[in-house]
Amino acid sequence: MHGRIHIRNTQKIMKNDLNVSLRPLRDKIDSIDEQLLQLLNARASIALEVGEVKKRFGASVFRPEREFQVISRLQKSNAGPLFGDNLAAIWREIMSASRALEKASTVVYLGPVGTYSEQAALSYFGQSMIGRPCPSLDEVFRSVEAGGADFGVIPVENSTEGVVSRTLDLLLQSPLSISGEIALPIHHNLMTQSGNLDGVMRICAHAQSLAQCQHWLTAHYSHLDRQAVSSNAEGARLAAKDATIGAIAGDAAAIQYGLQIAYSHIQDDPHNRTRFVVIGVLDPEATGYDQTSLILSVPNRAGAVVALLEPLARHGVSMTRFESRPAKSGAWEYFFYVDIEGHRNDLNVAAALEELQHHAAYYKILGSYPRAN
């Protein structure tokens, strides 16, 4: 009895000593927080003035190139101990809240709630956006084209499984342009109602996610059926209603649908990433760290592709991506999806594109926009 009393007294003394040691540090933090609050409100007031100027000139509230430049400048001058990515996340939320004082951006993405597409949208536009899930990629495009949303966020390619074919087809057909990109690390979790696989008979996820985890699933749960569904969040929604279903999805889906993670990071490639792009009607100005996306086709003659791309090399323009898609004309013709470094208004890029256009049977610029960090 006396031993327990002694332990409790010792713990109480240690707690008091801890509080005494922390009090001056916490007072400093409280004082800095008050200063930060005043400065953030001062910044927001100026942002409102900026909004009024933009309104007079009919300019867009959201300018991705400006926000890119703000974050890049701060990252370069940052002395730490905050990391650059953490600093970027903080300032992105500050700018998102400031934009919302003028007009919150309405952003559509492939739903339901809890998908990686939603996570990409939040990482780009911040928590102050008005997010709206869509049941398909086609509906994302339709919503933005019809003016029901300011922007759409769509997946383009995965580092493991390659391009999202439907996205490429829609980019060809749509009048919308690309104004930004997000490279999102993809960490897949296997989740169930109970947090274990007892009684689970099938695993539901998007087809690409099942493919990205196929070796892990085969090694550990080869006996379970695998069912492709419209999205990972849809798989999580089904698992929340049926204890015999496991789902592959991200942390957000587990929280959204009340599931327990049985295994985390089950993707076969530990560096698995998905590239998303932002679609809309914005035409960002050059930042010095840009990318231009094109769709091209060539006449059916020998050496046509070489002739098409030769101006890029001659003007020192680097090509970072080259994908082909059937033209669906029945004549074995192809469209080429090309990404190049630089903005279309850069002198060398503009010169290369002018020459390239003369060699192309089809030529479409999807947009010039800041590259993902």
Description:
The chain has helices at 2-57, 64-77, 84-102, 116-125, 137-145, 165-173, 207-212, 214-221, 232-241, 251-257, 304-314, 347-359, and strands at residues 106-110, 130-134, 151-158, 162-163, 177-185, 189-192, 202-206, 225-229, 245-249, 260-263, 273-280, 290-297, 319-326, 334-341, 362-370. The strands form three sheets. Strands 1, 2, 3, 4, 5 and 11 form a six-stranded mixed β-sheet that branches. A five-stranded mixed β-sheet has the order 8-7-9-6-10. The protein has a four-stranded antiparallel β-sheet with strand order 13-14-12-15. Helix 1 (2-57) packs across helix 3 and helix 2 (64-77) packs antiparallel against helix 3. It folds into four domains: 1-59; 60-185 and 274-282, Periplasmic binding protein-like II (D-Maltodextrin-Binding Protein, domain 2, 3-Layer(aba) Sandwich); 189-263, D-Maltodextrin-Binding Protein, domain 2, CATH 3.40.190.10; 283-370, ACT domain (Alpha-Beta Plaits, 2-Layer Sandwich), CATH 3.30.70.260. It has twelve helices and 15 strands.
Number of domains: 4
Instruction: Look at the structure and give the CATH class of the largest domain.
Output: Alpha Beta
How many beta-strand elements?
A: 15
Question: What would you report as the Rg, rounded to the nearest angstrom?
Answer: 25 Å
Give the CA-based shape: globular
CATH superfamily of the largest domain: Periplasmic binding protein-like II
Q: What is the chain-wise order of helices and strands?
A: HHHEHEHEEHEEEHHEHEHEEEHEEHE
The fraction of residues assigned to DSSP E strands is: 15-25%
CATH architecture of the largest domain: 3-Layer(aba) Sandwich
Count every helix, treating DSSP H or I runs of 4 or more residues as helices. 12
How far from one another are the termini?
61 Å
**What is the fold named in CATH at topology level of the largest domain?**
D-Maltodextrin-Binding Protein, domain 2
Q: Helix/strand-derived class?
A: alpha/beta
Helix content: 40-55%
Low-confidence stretches: none
Biggest beta sheet attributes: 6 strands, mixed
Instruction: Give the overall pLDDT as a whole number.
Output: 90
